[in-house]
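Record minuted for completeness.

…
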Amino acid sequence: MRCSDIEVAKSLSDCISSRHPVKWCDAFLGSENVTSACMSLECTSSSVLTWFQDHYGSDITSVRCSDDPTPWTLGSIIAWIVMFMILCVPIFVYLAQGSLKSDSSLLAFSLKRNIKYLFAVNVSRDEGEHFQLLEALRVLSLLWIVWGHMQILLPGFQNEEVAVKEVINSYSYFASAYFVSVGTFFWISGFLGARSVSRQMCRYKCNVLTKMLLIAFHRFVRISPVYLTVMLFAWTVVPRIGSGPGWNQYSRLLTGSIGFECQPHLIENVFFISNYTGNNFCLPWTWYLAVDFQLYLTLPLFHLAFESSFFKGVALSISCITTSLLLVMTSDSYVGAHTRMTPFILGLLVSWYLKKEPLSKEDACEKVHQKPSILLIEIHSDANNSTTLTNIQNVENTNFDEAKSSSDTSNTEEVLSERRSFFSFENRFLRWACYIFGTMCLFIVVDTYKLVALKATRNASISDSELLAWRLCREFVWGIGVTLVVGPFVAGHGGWLSRLMSQSFWSPFGKLTYTTYLIHPIVIVVYRCQYPVEWFSWRSYFSCFILLTLVSVTSAVGFFISVERPADQLL
């Protein structure tokens, strides 16, 4: 295909699937992209500009093709230096580890220690093994999101219409409803965040306002380093590794409408307020971080309410959920914390509901600083005066000296009963009612999405009532479903499924979910532009899913051991 044989492709998909060496070129009138064409790689920038001016008028001022090099700026040069330093520190520590002192801060970057931590199984003494299943829930939700984001690949197939129909048909539309799983992440964040903030509120010895500021700062420092590093990676490395006819168009999916250079909006992105300042995200999918951070800042207020009275906390939670649903009904905002808070609040409600009600603030905080948990063993003597273990229970926050002297059954039962939660789900009928009704809620949400999505693909009009039903299902019904299904599991029930989801192999992947979430869209888009799939089939689609997931997780390991874990240790 010579430059003189240029023909305008019908679509970007046609250009990508071309068997000739081609590139996709955009023509600009000032800063406005007025038209595009599929060009031969033999064409120079000047010949492409001349061709556009001959066919679309001399007003065309500039062109940009997918093989044009990304220009270097001062910001990108500085970012490259920072990325290089981040990469070199772990290598330096690895080489000089023998000469470093045991208390050196540089050991936070030790590759050996961080890899060992990644594959270690840590069960928090105040949570117990049944909380480990939340790691599995995180992993499964993330896999659902990765599968859904793979819809970016659909326009690259030659049979694009068939691909879209297959993904949103009667047996696979569940996969395309992936974005409701974000509500599951919010639920987990509310559940675990409530427990974490309760410990922090007791640990800090200062006034309430200072405690809230310290909690906000701790959260900010916890999630920012790897987020900013991935952002630097998207600015510096990604623009220079992509190629192919669709690179210009699909690379914009990484940075939305503001391009790779998002310096004007950097401050609002760094401080997680972009969702309320025009949605100018440097990385569009990081809207979740902004919403989650803002919701996390409300947890100290809920802690104060629940600490004062459990019913005051419930009243505050119901008021916030009602207000959020009213706002969803009037003006929906997909990236607003005020419209996404319902699953988060339901999660913290379950967290407080499963906690022992403290007798006083002093008693509750005193338990945070007591000695580690011990195993209380109920011992009985049989007819031959030999002892058998009849019950082993992990009892946390129990005074060691007091427990040591409590060896009879009555004392043991007294300690165990103190630890019982408000709602123990001991009633089997109640548990199964929760499972069934919760599962129905989840499928109602997916079915509602199917109704809306199928109408959208057929260009049919969607009524206001259908749109309102979808909004309410996305927030409230999904949150209720997750609460009813997961609630009995985190309370210690669930049988074989709970044991399966509490296995240790989930732990390393659970630790990588945050970084994998940040990196996987970059991997998908780079693959989409470099290796377009020519013909859709479920076999090829599923193979792409496995490949992209493995590459994303592998990339996340690098960011975890070099950035996320060291930053966490240095706090």
